[in-house]
Specification:
Blueprint: H1 9-12, E1 15-18, H2 34-39, H3 41-48, E2 52-55, E3 59-60, E4 72-76, H4 83-95, E5 99-105, H5 114-121, E6 133-134, E7 154-157, E8 162-165, H6 180-196, E9 200-204, H7 248-261, E10 268-271, H8 278-282, E11 294-295, H9 299-302, H10 307-320, E12 328-330, H11 339-342, H12 348-357, E13 361-365, H13 385-389, H14 432-436, H15 442-455, H16 457-461, E14 463-466, E15 474-480, E16 485-491, E17 497-509, E18 517-525, E19 530-534
Parallel strand pairs: 1-2, 1-13, 2-5, 5-9, 9-10, 10-11, 12-13
Antiparallel strand pairs: 3-4, 6-8, 7-8, 14-15, 15-16, 16-19, 17-18, 17-19
Helix pairs in contact: 6-7, 12-15
The chain binds alpha-D-glucopyranose (GLC).
Alpha-D-glucopyranose binds next to loops.
């Protein structure tokens, strides 16, 4: 049984997601790149204290979906660097004791990938069956499935008169994971990066690789059908019974796990599982912990931002993680509206404290540590294909350049260069340089929190228990390990609150870096203040 112990690095780690196109541009070509990331590794390791980075795709791509459409999984796109830069990035991160996890885009390739070019060339192509080709139904697509980005999930290819399936853009044809040659070719990709030294994979669209083999139509969703996630437009018109999550997908994850385990138990697979039914979501661990090490946990992003919803969500997630399994938490990524824009005014610090004191590995999204907000991107500057189809789903505003300084392009690239997406106008005040010199800044709050988590085993691996003193607007919980017990209290209300925390030492406050001292019984929390008590 592939069980993992508490010693596994990724249970102790704080992760940081980098969207490479937007982090740092070393050569002034408008796009962030791997050498830019290398130049900022000290920021991640020394300043922030991060243990691991997840890099969104940097592979060869025509950039229709900004790197999630790949033409060569084992090469680096020239705008991002080359293989040497990738190797150097991995080595430089390791030298600083940071792990590197890369995106593994499994469900589809680019339509310009040589495999697909070959596959579409004729019905007899040796790679025809590497993708999913079907005859239409009286000139209509083979099923009623719609793509995540809207429009039919099938495109008619004039060359051979058949339709190919694409869960996302028509430029992202679905690989046929029922073909063993595809499985082997993709596992070779995983081996390539493991050989280069990566520490694991974030598996993209990991629940979508296997669809109903009978390709049945999805039933239409009645108007009052509950929505588990955000408003997805046309995609929400159907109940998605047949176009993802066929049970055969678990077999693929078991096989992938064999590949990663063959490189040692330390290799991490964390899969993008957009499933909000908790038992089904948890099934991706595998009955014997032999599938993904962790399904990505997006549940904090779907919960209402109030104490009862957050508490219920956190307890439900932890209850559903199989005994012996381990979860993760995140409040932002390259697909969602920026955290600080989603939250009610003044709640950013509470969010940081919550994320970094829960039981489960925290994943931070670049820029959230300085409180970057969603940037309004004008139509003529828009880049995201999803936004072209459905305006409110554009992800551009959460992918704007990292704000390093108050300079012209926020220090993202050399002076005089123009970043590929507009720089947030608030970079004049919201930037790394400025926040470093302000002890009370969001950045310094995150730094202190990362350090606090690292200093306390209870915060890393301790148990989680909601505290009975919790109320409608105060959330209190306890983290307990063999050696220590800590209580975290978050006041969500706009007023001061008194709460009984018992005896202990107040070691952290979101409101005042200097607040500390013994407490006995009731303590006062300022409006939207969060505190941590060490009971030793
Ligand atoms: C995942 C990625 C998203 C991408 C899509 C298609 O959902 O997170 O950014 O567009 O897969 O690869």
């Amino acid at each position: 049984m592939a069980r993992t112990s508490y010693d596994t690095w990724w249970k102790h780690a704080v992760f940081y997601q980098i969207y490479p196109l937007s982090f740092a541009d070393s050569n002034g070509d408008s796009y962030g790149d791997l050498r830019g990331i290398i130049s900022r590794l000290d920021y991640l390791s020394e300043t922030l204290g991060i243990d691991a980075i997840w890099l969104s795709p940097f592979f060869k791509s025509p950039m229709r979906d900004w790197g999630y459409d790949i033409t060569d999984h084992t090469d680096v796109d020239p705008i991002l660097g080359d293989r040497d830069a990738a190797r150097e990035l991995i080595e430089e991160a390791h030298r600083r004791e940071m792990r590197v996890v890369v995106d593994f885009v499994v469900n589809h390739t680019s339509d310009e990938h040589p495999w697909f070019v070959e596959s579409r060339s004729s019905r007899d192509s040796s790679k025809r069956d590497w993708y999913v080709w079907r005859d239409g139904r009286d000139g209509e697509p083979p099923t009623n499935w719609v793509s995540v980005f809207s429009g039919p999930a099938w495109t008619l290819d004039e060359t051979t008169g058949q339709w190919y399936r694409h869960t996302y853009l028509r430029e992202q044809p679905d690989l046929n994971w029922r073909n063993p040659e595809v499985v082997e070719a993709m596992f070779d990709v995983a081996r390539f990066w493991l050989d280069m030294g990566v520490d694991g994979f974030r598996v993209d669209a990991a629940h979508q690789m296997m669809k109903d083999p009978h390709e049945r139509d999805n039933p239409p969703a009645p108007p009052d059908y509950p929505r588990a996630y955000k408003d997805m437009g046309e995609y929400d018109r159907f109940i998605h019974l047949y176009d993802f999550g066929h049970p055969d997908v678990h077999d693929i994850h078991r096989q992938l796990r064999e590949v990663t385990d063959s490189y040692g138990q330390e290799v991490l697979t964390v899969g993008e599982i957009h499933i909000f039914d908790l038992p089904e979501w948890a099934s991706y661990y595998g009955e014997n912990f032999d599938q993904l090490n962790m399904p990505f946990n997006f549940h904090l992003m779907t919960a209402e931002w109030d104490v009862p919803s957050l508490r219920a969500t956190i307890e439900a997630v932890l209850w559903n993680v199989p005994v012996g399994g381990w979860t993760n938490w995140t409040l932002g990524n390259h697909d969602e509206i920026r955290l600080s824009t989603r939250l009610p005014e003044g709640h950013g610090r509470l969010a940081a404290l919550l994320l970094l004191t829960l039981r489960g590995t925290p994943f931070l999204y670049y820029g959230d540590e300085i409180g970057m907000s969603q940037v309004a991107v004008a139509p003529e500057e828009a880049r995201d294909p999803w936004g072209h189809n459905v305006a409110w789903l554009s992800r551009d505003g959460a992918r704007t350049p990292m704000q390093w300084t108050d300079g012209p392009n926020a220090g993202f690239g050399p002076v005089g260069s123009t970043p590929w997406l507009p720089v947030g106008p608030d970079h004049v005040t919201v930037n790394v340089e400025k926040q470093l010199s302000d002890p009370d800044s969001t950045l310094n709050l995150y730094r202190r929190l990362v350090a606090l988590r690292k200093a306390h085993p209870s915060l890393q691996v301790g148990s989680f228990l909601s505290h009975p003193s919790s109320t409608e607007d105060v959330f209190a919980y306890r983290r307990e390990s063999d050696s220590e017990t800590m209580t975290i209290v978050l006041n969500f209300s706009d007023e001061e609150r008194m709460i009984d925390v018992g005896r202990g030492e107040l070691v952290f406050s979101t409101a005042d870096p200097d607040r500390n001292g013994r407490c006995r019984g009731e303590v006062a929390l300022a409006s939207r203040e969060g505190i941590v008590i060490d009971h030793a």
